[in-house]
Structures are given as structure tokens and as C-alpha cells.
Design goal:
Undecaprenyl pyrophosphate synthetase; 6-stranded parallel sheet; two-stranded antiparallel ribbon; 41% helix; binds farnesyl diphosphate
Length: 246
């Protein structure tokens, strides 16, 4: 037994933490609807949950957290909702990310940043640069991200190397592919969390989740907190990971 349960409290084993947790933050809209609030109020509460969860994950000693903030499919939402999420992001990059900086958190972005408004691209550059020496933990924000699109972009770059003669097609290994993904150099997530009762991957980190454990919870993302994070890690610590072996 690798864990203890004391007075029904969830006790996480600090020596067996996942290095990397990926989170599909779902349920902002339903959280808002339950309160008769506009969807953007749900996203605002979701952004607050993100800051809370990152802070807790860092305290626990998690090294990487990747969150799905805006997918390549999210552009299909109403103009109003997309604008509200982008405004929240602008605000976030100024405000919460400044607090992350003070807390020794490094910021990275995955996804096709070139599809975002220029001012947001500039803000991202600054934050990534300013935080690059931070050691506490790394938060990877997926923006205009899709797993298939990431693979497509990576394959395109590999094909260019082959065309120019810098790489032979026979040399393409799994490591080559990994090196051309947005997550190059980052360990794969051992644990993926999806909130709000949905049990889908929705084009998130398709390559990287080959051996991940999945934790699905009915909790809506804006309500997700420390206890829920502990429950997810507790669940992970009680799974036997075989990586295809026995
Ligand atoms: C899913 O809820 C959430 C999103 C598509 C956006 C995620 C954004 C945040 C958590 C906050 C923004 C964070 C940053 C950094 C800008 P949903 O709208 O699909 O909820 P529903 O399924 O209940 O409608």
C-alpha cells in the first residue's frame, strides 16, 4: 500500500507525485448557467480556479501543469464568447501571471500562437522570456491548441528538414517526432484530469498521453480546488502503471 487514509482524509504520498498533470478545464458554461450568469462569468471563475490550482500544485511539488485554455475548435463559439475569453487572457497575462512570476513559476505556451491577436502574442513573448529562469514549477497554457494541429505542424517541420537534406527519412524516430512537438523536452503527463463529467480527450496532447492515467470528475472547473486535486493525485497513486508490460 503506497497511501494512507486518516479520518477519511485523502493523504497524498509526496514521494510519488506525478511530475506532470494535464487538465481539461471543462464546465465553465454550466457553472455560469446554474447561477443564471453569462458564460463569460463562468470563464472568469475558471481563470480564478486555474490560479488556485496552480498555486496548490506548486505547494505540493508538482513540476509541470498543462491546461487546455483555448482549443483550435473553440473559434466556433460565438464572437462574443471568443472575445470574452481573449479579454480574460489579456487580463490574465498581466495580472495572474505577474503573481505566478513572484511565486517562481515559469510560463510556457503550446499551440499555434500565430493565430492569436498580435497584442496577445507580444504579451506571451514577454511572459515566457521574463519567467524563463523560474524554477518552482512550469505552467504550460494551451492556446489555439489542437493535438492534431500540433502533429501536423511538427510533421511539416520534419518534412522541410528531409526536403533540404538535413535529415534522412530513415532517421525519423519517436524522439525526432517528440523534438518537433510544442512540448519538446517536457516529460509526458502521467495524469490527465477532465472536469464536468465529460469523458473525452477532445484533441488534447494526443501524442503525449499514450501512457497517462485519466481522472474524470463531475466537479465543474470553477469549483475545482485543493481537495479535488488531492483526490485526483490519490487516484493516480493507486493505479498500477504497466506501460504495456506486466
Ligand atoms: C470549458 O468550459 C472552458 C473553456 C473552453 C475555456 C477555458 C478557459 C478558462 C478556464 C479560463 C480562461 C483561462 C485563461 C488563461 C484565459 P465550457 O465553456 O466548455 O463549459 P460548458 O461545457 O459547461 O459549456
Amino acid at each position: 500500500m503506497f497511501f494512507k487514509k486518516k479520518n477519511d482524509a485523502i493523504i497524498v504520498d509526496p514521494s510519488r507525485l506525478p511530475k506532470h498533470i494535464a487538465i481539461i478545464m471543462d464546465g465553465n458554461g454550466r457553472w455560469a448557467a446554474k447561477r443564471s450568469l453569462p458564460r463569460k462569468a463562468g470563464h472568469k471563475a475558471g481563470a480564478e480556479a486555474l490560479e488556485r490550482v496552480v498555486t496548490e500544485a506548486k505547494k505540493m511539488g508538482i513540476q509541470h501543469v498543462t491546461v487546455y485554455a483555448f482549443s483550435t475548435e473553440n473559434w466556433k463559439r460565438s464572437n462574443d464568447e471568443v472575445a470574452a475569453i481573449m479579454d480574460l487572457l489579456r487580463h490574465y497575462l498581466k495580472d495572474s501571471f505577474q503573481r505566478f512570476l513572484k511565486d517562481d513559476v515559469r510560463m510556457q505556451v503550446i499551440g499555434d500562437v500565430s493565430g492569436l491577436d498580435v497584442d496577445i502574442q507580444e504579451q506571451i513573448k514577454v511572459i515566457v522570456e521574463e519567467s524563463k529562469e523560474k524554477q518552482g514549477m512550469t505552467v504550460h497554457i494551451a492556446l489555439n491548441y489542437g493535438g492534431r494541429d500540433e502533429l501536423r505542424r511538427g510533421i511539416q517541420k520534419i518534412a522541410e528538414k528531409v526536403e533540404s537534406g538535413e535529415l534522412s527519412s530513415k532517421e525519423i524516430s519517436e524522439e525526432t517526432i517528440e523534438a518537433y512537438l510544442d512540448t519538446a523536452g517536457v516529460p509526458d503527463p502521467e495524469l490527465v484530469i477532465r472536469t464536468s463529467g465529460e469523458e473525452r480527450i477532445s484533441n488534447f496532447l494526443l501524442w503525449q498521453i499514450a501512457y497517462s492515467e485519466f481522472y474524470f470528475t463531475d466537479v465543474l472547473w470553477p469549483d475545482f480546488g485543493k481537495k479535488d486535486l488531492e483526490k485526483a493525485i490519490y487516484y493516480y497513486q493507486n493505479r498500477e502503471r504497466r506501460f504495456g508490460g506486466r
